[in-house]
Write a structure and sequence with these properties.
By secondary structure, the chain is α/β, with parallel strands linked by helices. Helix content is about 40%, strand content about 15%.
Length: about 350
């Protein structure tokens, strides 16, 4: 008889949430804390939402124990000292609760007319911020910098806040490994060669379907639609008129081109990213029909629970849910129940 193998036991990922820095973010974070979410991650898209560091300070002061995170911070938008000082300020308000994930910038940079930065540039900025937090003298733009805060004017160095990397593609994962990042953020379940991280957060959008709901249900359209629309935005940004091949894409592109002249269309194309539908986006979501249910995690509670198990098997330690639509409280409540089922 063959040897009996022990079953592979995989830890189920924790559930966290990602929110835009809006006026309601503190109330939403408090609800997430009550519902057992591990962390609240906040977007860093200054052209689309409020300031990520101001919002983190508000959440830190308005909650008791929930973890805080940037989902994800774009260091190229600020001088490294500005970023390091902001991190220090949040750490003072909520010691031990903050992690900071850095990314090359996609929507945040495209929304101000810039492409994402190169991975080499991200690595340099990551190292600069890390060294500043550790109290070192760092060369930035050819000049030495150091956190010089006297006692009472900032936290003592070193400031022990973990810095993660939002990694994608071979260069992204290679950069995260070269930086010895303690955690990574992904937008898809990692393939075999991209696993093995001590901490791995998976960003997911979508909605938990209630009995009788489908792609024609108004609530589902408002909650799942922004995730689908974000894919439309990406196709347009990266491939222009390739968006015409998507249902309703030609009309959507025409609406963007009508709204702004060439050179300014990035100022409208990304509005509502992963949070709310514009009228342009609502039209393309309607044209997509049941396809809006395919990206992200949309399904009943059993489907969501099965996705958690799949993610855990792939080494994901934390699923970061991005609720959308007008009823964020309802979305957070339903997802937490599914995650715990």
């Amino acid at each position: 008889m063959g040897a009996c193998r022990e079953p592979v036991v995989t830890a189920r990922p924790a559930h966290s949430c990602a929110l835009p820095p809006t006026v309601d973010v503190v109330d939403q974070a408090r609800l997430a804390e009550r519902l057992g979410y591990r962390r609240v991650w906040l977007f860093d898209s200054p052209a689309l939402h409020g300031d990520v560091w101001v919002a983190l300070a508000r959440v830190a002061a308005g909650t008791e124990r929930i973890g805080l995170a940037t989902g994800v911070a774009v260091p190229s938008l600020r001088h490294p000292m500005v970023t390091a000082s902001a991190i220090g300020s949040i750490h003072e308000l909520a010691p031990g609760r903050l992690i900071v994930a850095f990314g090359t910038g996609y929507t945040a940079r495209y929304a101000v007319g810039r492409k994402p930065i190169a991975w080499a540039d991200l690595a340099r900025q990551y190292r600069q911020v890390r060294a500043l937090l550790d109290g070192e003298v760092v060369e930035v733009d050819g000049r030495p910098c150091q956190m010089m805060h006297l006692p009472g004017h900032g936290p003592a160095r070193p400031i022990d806040v973990p810095l993660w990397v939002a990694a994608s593609g071979p260069k992204g994962f290679a950069t995260a490994r070269a930086l010895a990042a303690p955690g990574v953020v992904m937008t898809a379940i990692p393939a075999d060669g991209d696993r093995g991280w001590a901490q791995c957060a998976l960003l997911r959008f979508g909605t938990v379907l209630r009995p009788g709901e489908d792609h024609t249900t108004t609530r589902v359209i408002e909650a799942a639609g922004p995730g689908y629309a974000s894919i439309v935005h990406a196709v347009w940004q990266n491939a222009g008129d390739a968006v015409d091949a998507m249902p309703g894409g030609k009309e959507w592109r025409a609406a963007v081109e009508t709204a702004r002249p060439e050179g300014q269309r990035h100022l409208v194309a990304h509005q509502g990213h992963l949070s709310r539908l514009t009228e342009r986006d609502r039209s393309i979501v309607a044209a997509a029909g049941p396809a809006i249910l395919e990206p992200g995690w949309t399904g009943d509670a059993g489907v969501i629970a099965a996705r958690f198990d799949e993610a855990g098997t792939a080494g994901v330690t934390e699923v970061v849910y991005t609720p959308a639509g007008p009823d964020i409280a309802g979305e957070l409540t339903a997802f937490a129940a599914a995650a715990d089922s």
